[in-house]
Design a protein that fits this description.
The protein has 187 residues and is of the alpha+beta class. It has one domain: 3-Layer(aba) Sandwich (Glutaredoxin). The protein is 23% helix and 21% strand. Strand 4 (76-82), helix 3 and strand 5 (109-111) form a beta-alpha-beta unit. The relative contact order is 0.21.
Length: 187
């Protein structure tokens, strides 16, 4: 089955599409948006996912949360994004993990209810109004450095995302399966 998405503005090596979305930064009041400019000077992982209260999504979001200190250790932050509302995000964040929730998540969830951000990043499934599993790494200057988009059935790897950020931070040429601490390729 083909999935219909539209042209994407998000291109590696170019400035990341700007965003300003309602979020769960302030879980009780839901009055603090997330903006690309909030992360200037830091690496940012934008983690698009289809819907709150689903099956694969909580495994991904909690995996990235479990590794949050590792992301912070390399100067990176994480923001989860779906087309659900901030109110839905809050309900999901207040639901215990054993009941299908993501209680205790260590980073905010952003609400792309207009679907503009998902569209700009090329992950919106237009006929369903939800996002594919898109992962975008944005550098401290706001330039998109890495993107990967998965089908709805396959979750992403926090380990691989950390490896890619660390490889990008070397500024060098990193071979396949390069790991932190290994030499880069000398050209």
């Amino acid at each position: 089955m083909a999935i219909e998405t539209i042209h994407e503005a998000a291109q590696v090596g170019r400035p990341a599409p700007d965003f300003d979305m309602a979020s769960t930064k302030n879980l009780e009041k839901l009055d603090e948006n997330v903006r690309l400019s909030d992360y200037k000077g830091k690496w940012l992982v934008l983690l698009f996912y289809p819907l709150d209260f689903t099956f694969v999504c909580p495994t991904e979001l909690t995996t990235f949360s479990d590794r949050y200190e590792d992301f912070a250790g390399v100067g990176a932050d994480v923001v989860g994004v779906s087309t659900d509302s901030a109110h839905s995000h809050r309900a999901w964040l207040k639901t215990p993990k054993e009941k299908g929730g993501v209680e205790g998540l260590r980073y905010p969830l952003a609400a792309d209810i207009t679907k503009e951000v998902s569209r700009n990043y090329g992950v919106l499934i237009e006929d369903k109004g939800i996002a594919l599993r898109g992962l975008f790494v944005i550098d401290p200057e706001g330039v998109l450095r890495y993107k990967v988009v998965h089908d709805l059935n396959v979750g992403r790897s926090a380990e691989e995302t950390l490896r890619v950020i660390q490889a990008l931070q070397t500024g060098g040429l990193c071979a396949a399966e390069w790991k932190p601490g290994q030499e880069t390729i000398k050209a």
